[in-house]
Amino acid sequence: MVSIEFLVTSLVVVLIPGPGVLYTVSTGLTEGRGASVYAALGCTAGIVPHLLATVLGLAAVMHTSALAFQVLKFAGVAYLFYVAYATWRDTSAFAVDGNAAAARTPASSLVAKAFLLNILNPKLTIFFLAFLPQFVEPGIGPWSPLLQLLLLSAVFMVMTFVVFVVYGLVAHAFRQRVIDSARVQRWLRCSFAAAFAGLGARLALSER
Fold first, then answer.
1. Cα dihedral angle (21, 22, 23, 27), rounded to 10 degrees?
2. From CA 191, how far away is CA 13, in angstroms rounded?
């Protein structure tokens, strides 16, 4: 079940930069420490439907249905390009903790944006379908395959949240180095926008 191999592999997977990591880091830089926690919460919530799809067997439908995969994929592509455009167009100064501006983006909005980034990525469902069953051990007492999948999913979610929070806090720690430089802030926004656009392009060109 929850073996060392599962924990190490999950950690490596969670640490790999993707849309969720990028969004959490950019939020930590631009909005502050508290906002990055909300971003991490939204990203974690966004993987719940994919995990449930795997546990309930719906991932098999996604894997075999080209139409379902393409529809979700291009919805995700469109949203990544939207986030890239919104990031590029944003000209507001980075928020400062303790200042009213630090709360300029509602927590619900931060969570919703992060949630959409992950739920609109169909490759997560395919990933969990291929990943989780490898660590299910048949015939170990009361732990049925379904219960094992639920436990592994819960552990993966907790690990995702913790790692993303750490990413956000690390990003926050570097805020003071750039908070007084409008030029550096603009460069960072353009870099994040380009990264989101690049992820969108990669998703658009990806195959199942």
1. 100
2. 23
